[in-house]
Amino acid sequence: MRSGLEPGRHKIIKEWPPKSLALHALLGQPGRTKMNCGRKLWRTLALTFLIPVLTGFAASRTLQIQDTIGRSWEQEPINWEISLKPGEFKGGPVLVQRAGKAIPAQAYVLEKHPDGSAKTAAIHFIIDKLEKDATTHLTADFGKEGPSTPDLKVSEEKETLVLDNGLTAVRVLNRNIEQALSGELSPVLAIRLPSGKWTGSGRYLTQTKPVGTKTELLEKGPARVAARVTTTFENRKTHIMTISLWAGSRSIEIDESFDVGPESMYQFKQYKEDSDELAWEWWSWYGDKDGIKETHPNYWTFSFNDAAFQAGQITYYGDMASDPEKGNNKERGKSTYKLDFANDTRLEKYLVGMWQWRPDAVTWIALSSGASPESETVALYTHSVRNWGNPNVLPTPEGTTLRTGANDMPLRSYRAGKQLTLQCPIGLGLRSWAIRPSTLQEPFASSRGCPTALDAERLQRQFGLDIVRRWVTDWEMTFDYPRIFIKPQEKEAYYARLKGRGIDSPGNTMDTFLRQQDQAGFEFDWKNINHQADQMLAGYFAGTGVEDYPGWMLGYWHGIIVADGLDNLLGSPLCTPERARSLKKKLAILTYCLTAKDAWPDKHINYGWGSMNMPVGRRGGLVVMASALSDHPMAGEWLKDTGRYFNMLLQTEFGPDGSHKSCPHYIGASSTSFYAWLALANSGKFEDVSTKPILKNFARYYMQLIKPKDPRWDIRVLLNEGDTRPGSSPMPGILATLFKKTDPQLAGELMQLWIDGGRDTGLSMGVPDALIIDPTVQPLKPNLPPQVFPGFGAFLRYCEPGTPEEAYLAFVGGNFMIDHGIRAQKCSQNYRYRIGNRRSYQAGPVTRNVQ
Length: 851
Prior knowledge:
21 helices, alpha+beta, five-stranded antiparallel beta sheet
């Protein structure tokens, strides 16, 4: 830590006018001047201005930190970035005061001006406690010394640095050699257990030889210590590891960047078109069940078992085990199993950047020496997936364009020596994770509002105070609702249409209020919507992120439910401004969560995007949620890529002839895109896509999927396959509403098919269909000629639609028919197609009297 009077700063003092007076005053000598001022006055002036001179006149900075989400906080690290003018700060101490009391803090220069002074600096400190809904104020003065943290220290041993915070410590390599002929080059050498014993050993297991190493001490406290080790390989590529320890934390944090290669195997995806960046692709995880077939040529490894520590038990949180000997193979979540080292080698788990539907994938894992509460334990956990980067692994298998999760870390056991080794691929990418020594009872006790201390550690780095303090959850709100799918001035007719009818789903959320439209109905669904929002918030802030509830799909699906409930409840005179503000705050938090890269990593990070309906669902959900909060300061930011995404969707999900590049199951699941288009058109701020020919073609294509009336139910049903349910569809009614103004003829034909399908409505993907479909659209007789869709199939129709003679024969095949569960490569469906005076019938899966 530099002192206030450091070499190189005296030049500033000499240049400070009045030059002679300042120097003489500083030295305690009278100044030679004709001004009628005494020695004492000038000495006082000089001392008054001394500190601003030393720091380039850096003014005090202020920061307000507030709990924005209704949660209490403990031991929260804060990263306060400050922009500075040239000459204000060149490095050194900083004094941070909280409510007038000095707290340990340090300044770190991030970017410099041409003169070498700081352009941007980060101040690190810890908020020890902040109550729910509380606010605290801080000031920072560069160049002034603050209090120290005695337990946080850095010491040098032979070719090592020891980073120590009292709770744990880590030995870091400090060789600094460009061309090593021999010796260890691992950046981390060992960790210290609670007993004081050192354990662990790091090494490179690579085809490309490491040859050099460089260590830099980045931070020396008093809030955090950090060192960066850069290992250079014979191909001049690098593995860079930054190791850090916060005061009062048990976690040894590790951030990596690497490009050891080979380049022919690892490549970051190139983003030349919108579809490259935004569109879903066929993907698969990299890494097989046993971790033998799909491996990496270059690893940094860290082994845990030695004389000081022998793991005999594993506890983890993650997906189902691939084998009952490795934990719960029936359910996801927390599980424990014993290590017996019975195999020559066995893949125990994949330590992954985020929760995955992948057997043996875990986000934290604890290795313990026994089952007693005091057994020494080493936990490993990943965090901050926004800071990860996974490359594509080439060549990709046929039918797949993207391999994801390449930088997940296999944990392998070995019978020889009862070794347990974490393998960290270093081909290409970024990774953030931590090692956390403790006793067994400590990491599994509830902590800071989370089920376990390990969940709390992950939460702190993903949705901690330093992140949520930037969220705006109290703003100048407006209460003109409904606003998502209709104009507020249309609400009287809207509510009148729904009164006595509801959403055609008695007992489900929003039906009671919209059906009754009285105080009792309002209270009933107010409770339901708030319960839904509270469940989601509890899931996000349980430390498991979106790994438990609300999960990938439910993050947008149930977010839409909350947004739609808000839209309808706040439009009622029964809703008070206080209640409206509370629900809008909850939806704002959920929208921040939905847009967080730790909850939903973007394609650059390259983690699997679930199934193909999930990206479109997330984007559609975001439009609905942000549209319900159109008065929020972040609404424009949340929607900034909306036009780009949905214009891309028109090109990637629909063929020029309108055919959908998915199966009918996913057409229904992607109904969130139509929610988005309806909401965007209603807002008047985006292009009305109902004028696009490709969507009109899609509507005509979808009409061809609708069969004549089925004699079993006397309604039109949707052509079904895979695991799609047999039955009608609300989609024609939704499409009719979309086209009601721009193409009344098409809208009318769609409305007639919806009516013929029994006026199908359901809860759909978050918005009840009855709230979307406008029954005032005038039905018209559908035009259903025979039609061929190259690459998809053909629909042969005969006789007038809607009559008993209407005939239908459909030939469709290829991957379209696979859906979730059926793997047939082609099939055909027909329904009463007349050839002369003969007919063929299909009822369900059994074809009868085929001619």
